[in-house]
Amino acid sequence: MSAGPLPEERPTAASPAELRVGEVLDELRTFRLRLWAPVLLGVIMLFDSWDSVAIAYAMPTMSAEWGLAPSVIGLLISAGYVGQFIGAMALGGLAERFGRMPVFAVSVVVMGVLAFACALAPNEGSLMAIRLVQGIAIGGALPVAITYINELAPTATRGRYFAIFQWIAMSGYAAASLASTVIIPELGWRWLFGIGALPLLLLPLAMLTLPESPRWLARIGRIDAAGKALVKLGAAPVLLPENTGPAERQLAQAPRFGLRTLFEPAYRRRTVTLLLLWFLISFTTFGLVTWVPSIFTSVFHIPVADALAYASVAPVLFLIATPLVAFAMDAMGRRPLAILSTAIAAAALFVLTFFPPASTGLLVGMVVAGQVGVSITTFILWPYSAETYPTHIRAIGLGMGSSMARGASMLTPFVVGLMLGTANSIALVFGVFSAFAIAATLLWILGTRETAGIKLEEL
């Protein structure tokens, strides 16, 4: 079932220095590498998630205070997503040219400073402008951080290693939701934005204790710096092979390539497949998360309190299931788990389209199955995307995928809103979600190859 490279695909080979760096990282058992890096960066990126959704929970109080029209509310929310779309695409290229940690650090600084600026915004116009620029940092920081984490991860446990980081980072959504119920009534909506500046206190710790990605340093020919980075992670001093031959020297030029590299013959097929997966899965995920509470109340006439409780089941189940998914990614592989979870989501959404249950319990169960299925697939898609590309375009590839996801998040509210205004609207909505999930399942089966347990330099 695994789809291998097309005959014309000739991905750039890893240099001897890269291969040796990978071997050292696989053998290293230090606390700084195995736990400190994913936990610390995960905590910092928790506030990336926090900043991304804070406006949703601040909006009811803010709109009443400023007397905002619905159209202005929509623009305020969209401004952040537009910035995220730009940042996800742009900052990956900068990370290939200047390194993972410098771009990550600048993104976090901008994100934190502008979180504080959001708290002080005097009106909706200034807040919209701030959110747009902050969105660029929010959208760019995540794919760069995931690139870095993936390049440190040991081969045998890469799925679990990534899951430590991602589980902490994703908890920012739930943290903002729960904290808003206390912070806004007691302190006001501005404090919810201001707390997003806390990564400014953690960033110096990350810069002092974590080096630049040794894989990236080896890739561009900075052999001495790569060796020092390994030592900073706890390795004994190691002699890395120099990039002395013509082919190895040419590798140092790779970071100067841009988005066009993703569509060269060596990478075109995998890029198109990944972009389609990101769009299909993200559209379905954001559609369900955004519209399920409203669908429960307006279409199925479930009381608001019950609808909100039902809508919270899927996120909670997903967070509980994440550790199991992490182990399964390494034990089963990325593709089997992704195919299974996407197929379950497709089946549940298919039932909702053509055979909607009369029982509220069965209805909610089908919706939860669809949500959890696509959420697990999204979780797997992050490390899989990072493993699909070599070091010199990994951040660009992740940025493109993330940008496609942000684009889907901007499109979903508009498209679903239009569909809900048509006859037999709920069947149409679930039908589109089902079709997208089926298409994603087929893409996983026919267009991907397994990456679990394979060294990054060999993929």
The average pLDDT is 86
Distance between the termini: 17 Å
The H-level CATH homologous superfamily of the largest domain, spelled out, is MFS general substrate transporter like domains
**Alpha-beta classification:** mainly alpha
Give a count of the beta strands, DSSP E runs of length 2 or more.
Answer: 0
Helix-strand sequence? HHHHHHHHHHHHHHHHHH
Poorly predicted regions: 1-10, 245-255
Please give a structural write-up:
This protein is mainly α and 459 residues long. It folds into 2 domains: 16-256, Up-down Bundle (Growth Hormone, Chain: A), CATH 1.20.1250; 262-458, Up-down Bundle (Growth Hormone, Chain: A), CATH 1.20.1250. It is built from 18 helices and no strands. The chain has helices at residues 16-27, 31-66, 70-98, 100-120, 124-152, 158-187, 189-194, 199-209, 214-219, 223-232, 246-251, 268-298, 304-311, 313-331, 334-354, 360-388, 394-419, 425-447. Helix 12 (268-298) packs antiparallel against helix 16. The protein is globular, with a radius of gyration of 22 Å.
